[in-house]
Amino acid sequence: MPITVTEKALGKIKELVQKRGPQTKGLRVGVKGGGCTGFQYLFEFSDDDPAQHDRVFDLDGIRIYCDPKSYLFLNGTELDYVETLMESGFKFQNPNVKSTCGCGSSVAF
After folding, report:
1. pLDDT: is 66 or 104 the higher one?
2. Which residues pair with 82 in a beta bridge?
C-alpha cells in the first residue's frame, strides 16, 4: 500500500511549492533516528531529483520521494494537514506506529 495524501494536505503542499518557486522538484518524506522514542518524521522540500532507489509518487503534479528504508516504516501512511485553534500542520497517520512520545514529535515502530 503506498503513501497517500489527503486533498487538504495536497492543497497545502501545492501552495507551499508555489511560494518556494520553480526550483522545487519534490517533497521528501521519511523517518530518521532521533527523538524521545527512536524516530522522527522527515518532511522537507527538495530542489534535487530523487535518488536512484527512491520510491516516487506523483500526486497531481507534485512528486513525493521516499527512500527505501523509510518506506518500510511509512508504507500505508496517510499524510494529512490539520488546522485547529490549537495547532496547524502536517500529520502522519501511520498504522505502523507502536507508540509516540508525550510531545508527539517522535515515534516508535
Report:
1. 66
2. 89
- Parse the chain into domains and list their residue ranges: 4-108
What is the CATH topology of the domain spanning 4-108? Answer: Hypothetical Protein Aq_1857; Chain: A; (2.60.300)
User: In angstroms, rounded to a whole number, what is the distance separating the alpha carbons of residues 3 and 48?
Assistant: 20
pTM: 0.86
User: Looking at the predicted structure, is the pLDDT value of residue 103 above 80?
Assistant: no
